[in-house]
Backbone:
């Protein structure tokens, strides 16, 4: 079964991508495309640090609003995050409910009793619940935005040109290169199982262990069989021959990018100071 | 006097732990601009020789080496693995596994960047390399969107960007359909004539190569046993297995089909009626209708992307058709689960690594039969034992199947399907990576299946094999069944359509006396 220009292959790949709620780079979010990947990385790191550090509900609310602005600036609108992150919102809601019901401090806001069952919500529980829910959505939402708006290839090349050892950079690039191949191979292994009449339905432990062995052993073997080819291909083209390498496409930072990179942490430091008062 | 690019002096190499040398007393000289083709059965040492030439042996593969390999006068023992990059370029069989970046631009620039060349020089080399293989238009494409032929051309370009004097290609067309194969071979011919690069191609399929090679070289058990010009070669070298078979002429009825049942007297075993299959918004197959009668072997041919694999998956129920019906012995099985349909239809995929699940060869051979066959386990065991013997796998019974060679794994997957005797045998490119000697195992199995009244659907791009064992050809193009006709008629139609790459070499060249391989 050839992997090449096969419509079937493409169909299956995109079908698989669909099962990971769109967690892949979208070249179509054009406005974000022009921002240097390192600026986006610094923005993500600064935003996440501030979200973790700021203790107030108001602060988390501010960051949630800021995140919505970032989504809009990236050209992803409001429906995209609502649709793609719906599981995150549900999980956030669960966190909120657990906190609200579990924390027994503060002013009693609501109480419900039914026989031996007593449920109460207090002001501190409500506050903690809201804070943790927003913090969770802010962290996941910003990471998600970074992934969909940043070309991983450009990011890896930018990091290498900034000083990241090129062996690490190419570890990332090679991993990305093989993700679609492994998706496809997973499908092929599943097909091969069904072709042999192997049914791994049901929730028994035995079935689960068989499923793991029958799915992942062929995949791992297949991956390992590519290692030799890849090594020969890369070393045959002088990979690792010199401690440094040059790059055809420059990912250099402009003066504007450098100023933005300095300004971003400062902005979030100010936010932290303001909301921690 | 012209100095040779390659000079091998009495080279012998034994891998660590191996009982026998992989290469024995190899002597070879290759001159600038020479095109050399190396062939021989699987495991004869061709790929080991390529690794020696590229300088990976003795550095990256432990073993004992005697003799010497000089590339442009440089002794390979004195350079580390990859140290000859820029002098020798090695292109491997699987284009998918050798491209390591995400875009064509980055892939072709990868080598020159590693050589620390200035940006302007890299840019120039990238453009020149892609132009040389006729792929400049692919510059901004993502690697995963390329076809097999395009990937192989990009792989060649990425090596050419290193400006090598010697280009070695290890089975560069093994995974490609005939159209892509022609594309790649035309590129090689152009490189040799326009740039004077020395080229060594390792290949099982010689037909297209014999026309462009200066010299053909045959290896067996680590030694060079025959060498000569293509013309000389044709007279002297006829592989033992196919050489003993009677020559099958283009217009003659195939020997294997003598005594075939008359279609009109029997119902079809497999019938496909107006099948339409697709993914998301795209129809990959549409309007596919054909019947296969007991005792028929059908060849399924077509370019990559024409829908062959989709058809096979649909037949087994691994893909649900959007429209149309599939009948097996007159029973509508369109909605039947794949695992139930598998009892009657045995599908062997191209890559054996995806279909091996057990820890020992014998367990793997029995796995499918245990769930699909109605026979008792001891009967299955006895049958499997016979097949393992026949397919020369018995000695590996208790070994891990993943330790077998590619050809052995392929034979094992065939055994595991034959063990439960499905009435329809579906084989997806079973010849890839198989030498001519091992072909006889497959041909015998197909013939036995046919004699028992079974149907075989064989995805195959080897016209000689198709002529030798198939009754009809189904030719797909862009998801449509373009040809459904007896072999000779179908080949005539393909000839009319100008699809020469699907015709046997002797038919193209008008030389009916040429041997099959």
Residues:
């Amino acid at each position: 079964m050839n992997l090449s220009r096969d419509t079937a292959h493409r169909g299956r790949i995109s079908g698989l991508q669909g099962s990971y709620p769109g967690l892949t780079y979208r070249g179509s979010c054009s406005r974000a495309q022009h921002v240097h990947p390192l600026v986006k990385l610094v923005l993500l790191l600064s935003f996440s640090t501030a979200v973790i550090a700021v203790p107030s509900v108001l602060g988390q609310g501010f960051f949630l609003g800021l995140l919505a602005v970032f989504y809009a600036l990236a050209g992803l609108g409001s429906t995209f995050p609502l649709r793609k992150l719906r599981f995150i919102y549900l999980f956030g809601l669960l966190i909120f409910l657990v906190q609200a019901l579990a924390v027994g401090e503060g002013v009693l806001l609501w109480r419900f009793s039914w026989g031996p069952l007593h449920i109460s919500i207090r002001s501190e529980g409500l506050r903690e619940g809201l804070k943790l829910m927003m913090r969770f959505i802010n962290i996941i939402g910003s990471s998600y935005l970074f992934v969909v708006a940043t070309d991983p290839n450009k990011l890896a090349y930018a990091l290498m040109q900034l000083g990241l050892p090129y062996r690490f950079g190419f570890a990332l690039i090679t991993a990305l290169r093989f993700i679609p191949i492994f998706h496809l191979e997973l499908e092929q292994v599943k097909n091969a199982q069904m072709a042999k009449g192997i049914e791994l339905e049901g929730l028994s432990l035995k079935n689960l262990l068989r499923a793991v062995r029958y799915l992942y052993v062929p995949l791992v073997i297949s991956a390992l069989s590519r290692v030799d080819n890849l090594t020969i291909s890369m070393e045959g083209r002088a990979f690792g021959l010199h401690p440094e390498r040059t790059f055809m496409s420059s990912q250099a930072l402009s003066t504007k990018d450098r100023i933005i990179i300095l300004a971003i942490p400062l902005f979030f430091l100010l936010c932290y100071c303001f909301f921690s008062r | 006097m012209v100095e040779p690019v390659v000079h091998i002096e009495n080279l012998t190499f034994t891998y660590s732990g191996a009982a026998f040398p992989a290469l024995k007393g190899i002597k070879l000289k290759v001159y600038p601009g020479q095109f050399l083709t190396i062939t021989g059965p699987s495991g004869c040492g061709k790929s080991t020789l390529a690794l020696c030439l590229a300088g990976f042996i003795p550095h990256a593969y432990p073993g004992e080496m005697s003799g010497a390999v000089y590339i442009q006068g440089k002794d390979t023992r004195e350079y580390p693995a990859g140290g000859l990059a820029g002098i020798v370029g090695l292109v491997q069989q699987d284009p998918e596994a050798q491209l390591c970046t995400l875009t064509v631009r980055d892939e072709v620039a990868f080598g020159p960047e590693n050589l620390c060349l200035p940006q302007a020089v890299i840019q120039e080399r990238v453009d020149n390399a892609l132009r040389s293989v006729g792929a400049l238009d692919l510059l901004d494409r993502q690697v995963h969107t390329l076809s097999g032929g395009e990937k192989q051309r990009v792989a060649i370009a990425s090596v050419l960007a290193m400006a090598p004097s010697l280009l070695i290609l290890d089975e560069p067309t093994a995974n490609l359909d005939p159209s892509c194969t022609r594309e790649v071979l035309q590129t090689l011919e152009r490189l040799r004539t326009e740039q004077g690069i020395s080229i060594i191609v390792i290949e099982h399929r010689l037909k297209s190569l014999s026309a462009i090679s200066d010299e053909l070289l045959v290896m067996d058990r680590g030694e060079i046993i025959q060498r000569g010009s293509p013309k000389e070669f044709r007279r002297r070298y006829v592989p033992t297995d196919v050489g003993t078979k009677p020559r099958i002429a283009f217009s003659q009825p195939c020997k294997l089909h003598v005594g075939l049942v008359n279609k009109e007297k029997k119902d079809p075993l497999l019938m496909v009626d107006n099948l339409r299959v697709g993914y998301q918004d795209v129809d990959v197959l549409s309007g596919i209708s054909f019947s296969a009668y007991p005792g028929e072997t059908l060849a399924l041919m077509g370019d990559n992307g024409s829908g062959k694999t989709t058809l096979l998956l649909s037949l087994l129920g691994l893909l649900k058709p959007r429209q149309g019906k599939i009948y097996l012995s007159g029973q509508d099985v369109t909605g039947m689960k794949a695992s139930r349909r598998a009892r009657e239809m045995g599908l062997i995929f191209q890559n054996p690594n995806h279909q091996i699940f057990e820890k020992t060869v014998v367990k793997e051979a029995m796995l499918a039969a245990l769930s699909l066959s109605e026979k008792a386990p001891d009967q299955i065991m006895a049958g499997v034992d016979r097949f393992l013997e026949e397919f020369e796998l018995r000695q590996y019974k208790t070994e891990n199947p993943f330790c077998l060679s590619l050809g052995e794994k392929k034979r094992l997957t065939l055994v595991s399907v034959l063990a439960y005797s499905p009435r329809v045998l579906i084989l997806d490119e079973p010849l890839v990576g198989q030498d001519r000697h091992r072909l006889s195992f497959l041909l015998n199995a197909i013939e036995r299946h046919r004699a028992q009244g079974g149907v075989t659907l064989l995805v195959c791009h080897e016209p000689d094999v198709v002529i030798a064992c198939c009754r009809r050809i189904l030719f797909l193009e862009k998801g449509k069944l373009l040809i459904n006709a007896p072999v000779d008629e179908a080949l005539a139609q393909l000839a009319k359509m100008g699809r020469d790459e699907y015709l046997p070499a002797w038919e193209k060249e008008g030389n009916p006396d040429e041997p099959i391989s």
Notes: The beta strands of chain A are 108-114, 117-122. Chain A touches chain B through 65 residues (CB under 8 Å).
